[in-house]
Specification:
Order of helices and strands: EHHEHEEEEEH
Strand order of the largest sheet: 1-2-3
Number of strands: 7
CATH class: Alpha Beta
CATH architecture: Alpha-Beta Barrel
CATH superfamily: Enolase-like C-terminal domain
Number of domains: 1
Length: about 110
Amino acid sequence: ISGGALSVVMPDVKFCGGVAEAYHVGKSALAAGRQVSLHSPSGPVSLLQGGHVTAALRDAMSLEHAVYEASWRAELLSPAEAVKDGMLWIPPGPGLGATLDGAVIDRRGRRWKP
């Protein structure tokens, strides 16, 4: 960041060390005059984490996300994730603001075996 090699920094909550570290990376990038766009294409929980960090940064440019990769994606969270007028809606509840539905995971999920 400080060397100027990047014009847009794209931290990913699940790879950079969590919500606090993504926020720290974003603040450092903004302080260095770089743009920030969180990378969050790993499902609705990752998207909400990235959304909270993006909202906290205030000067972040956008939030990258994947949509429509599974027809049942909206069933995973309550309340369901929503993009309204081009903006991710952040639920007002505690924590991430939404609850993961374990029954949907049991019904729809698959076990991965290496």
